[in-house]
User: What shape does this take?
Amino acid sequence: MKREKSRKYRLLQALRILSQWFFFGLFLYLFTRTRFTGSDVIGPVERFFHFDPLLAIVATAAGRAFFAAFVWAGATVLLTLVLGRVVCGWVCPLGSLHQFFSFLFKKAKLHRPKAASAGPLKWKYVILIFILTGSLLGLNLAGWLDPLSFLYRSFATAVFPALGHATKGFLSLLYALGLSGPAGTVGQRFESLTVNPVYLQGFFLGLLFLAAILLNLVRERFWCRVLCPAGALLGLLSVGNVFKLKIDRNKCIDCGLCNLQCQTQASPFPDEEWKRAECVYCFTCAAVCPTAAIGFPSRDVARREKRVSLDRRKILWTPIAALAALPFFRIAPSGRRAAASLIRPPGARPEPEFLSTCVKCGECMKVCPTGGLQPVLTAAGPEGLWTPRLVPRIGYCEYYCSLCSQVCPTGAIKELSVEEKLTVKIGTAWVDKNRCLPYALGEPCIVCEEHCPTSPKAIRLVEHSALLPDGTVSAQMAPVVDVSACIGCGICENKCPVVDRPAIYVTSVGEHRSETNRLLLDI
Assistant: This one.
């Protein structure tokens, strides 16, 4: 009987691992499909985010509007109400990654499981309360610690770019060894992923991701235990699910192995101390029990359950802290005058609405075929940290592309067809005559005019006579910008042959999404 029951939970544990691999693979598949594939329409590659109830609640509350795709989050809520936090243990790709590294660290003897205080478990609930309170005030901070946003942003801006550079180094080694055949095959496979190798904050975001992984040396699944607000939300929703832990006292030998191996510190033994909100139903406790004393019956188990102790003072002070912090998050020069460098993607909603709905996931940055969309550091203030902006010197906004608007999971970037996108103005180009070759040096150059994609062209050429240092005059065709026709795509700045600081540059002024960021205001 004991062997049969042990096999049952070992089988469930194996099925859970297979489920984790499947959903992590699905996440990677959708991640790698978030790129230009030759079609104007990319498909629902952002669907994973729509099953996240934390993003659904915060984006709806902060943005004061419900994004229809978040109806899928209802499936996660329903599953949690019935079965408990199985999404954390069986589905979440970041949770799977943490569990995998916890396993590796234990196997490498870098981490030894030991008893831990239950105190740190409360911090994820404090973080959840802070985020939810902020959302009621229009402040969207969910993307900072939401597991899907954190994982996707880390992979898009740090992990895969680093992998790209490592692959290039490996290919160089293969070519140096004369293995051009394998090098060509590997190169073609990797190029098909269309990985942008340059992100302004890639190193910093990579360090944050590495730190999150290394925290598993302190405690297994440290992120899930202490930091994850989505896990805290699902824990609150799981308090009435049908499965409860039960220990057969006639078989239990009080060895404590179940507590030691519990990955989320749900404390299976004694069963009256079991914290259902912390259990992710990995069934490790039942699988390692030497006497098969642990079970998870669906019938009612009459007992009072243990819950994470939340200090009432902390519960009271956390919303107050969120209220006090709100003004500090909105301290930014762009609140008074629009930041010239804050060029948002085409389709981006007006800045207050954009900030209240963007979850900093990096989907738009990943899909940008030129790599021009980059994470913001300070241009939009603390509230806008890691939101996207166009940096033309790195990449321009491709004229016949609207992919970034198609993959936004929250509607912060309104979905546009290619035809609609062609008419959207995100900024305006300006010529620096002190650096432009025809104006400053009397040298011929028409690069910006040649690359301007609009029809009719927003950059036109006029004859200009430049006075040279030797007193002679050089007549050249020089560029001028028709600000009414320019859409701010940035290709002119990107292609300008003046390499250190381009002689033509783009600012956000004139963007269609803003009623005030105008060159000339109507009086």
User: Anything to note?
Assistant: DSSP finds 22 helices and eight strands in the chain. The first strand starts at residue 246 and ends at 247. The domain at 427-523 is CATH 3.30.70.20 (Alpha-Beta Plaits). The first helix runs from residue 2 to 33.
